[in-house]
Design brief:
This protein folds into two domains: 56 residues; 34 residues, no CATH class. It is built from one helix and eight strands. It has a four-stranded antiparallel beta sheet with strand order 1-2-3-4. A four-stranded antiparallel beta sheet has the order 5-6-7-8, with no helix packed on it. Strand 3 and strand 4 form a beta hairpin. It is elongated and about 55 Å long.
Length: 108
């Protein structure tokens, strides 16, 4: 039995995601799983056509981890001390040494 791939989900098709840039379909597994590659990082993962249609495929290689450094808009650089959740990230502002907990995307 051959897999019937919808015309707009052929291997090589490129789609935008909401938060992780563009993805390319590079393969299939059975009838429900789609293998995609993120064009900006090269990270590959399995997902579904529904997730692709909604733009909700996330690049897990971009997850914040301890030791990551980010430049803020107003306060110089921060270093991630501990990642508890997306809403509880402990950071240290490098210029002042001040430590606090923030939500991702919030240190300024």
């Amino acid at each position: 039995m051959r897999l019937q791939v919808p015309e707009n989900f052929k291997i090589g098709s490129i789609y935008d995601t909401n938060k992780s840039g563009k993805i390319e379909i590079i393969g299939y597994e059975k009838n429900t799983k789609v293998l995609v590659r993120f064009l900006n990082t090269g990270f590959e993962k399995m997902t579904s056509t529904t997730q692709i249609k909604l733009g909700e495929v996330l690049d897990n290689s971009l997850v914040t981890k301890e030791g990551d450094r980010f430049e803020t808009n107003y306060s110089g650089w921060v270093t991630v001390l501990e990642y508890v959740s997306a809403h509880d990230v402990k950071v240290k502002f490098e210029t002042t040494g001040y430590e606090t907990s923030v939500s991702l995307g919030k240190p300024r």
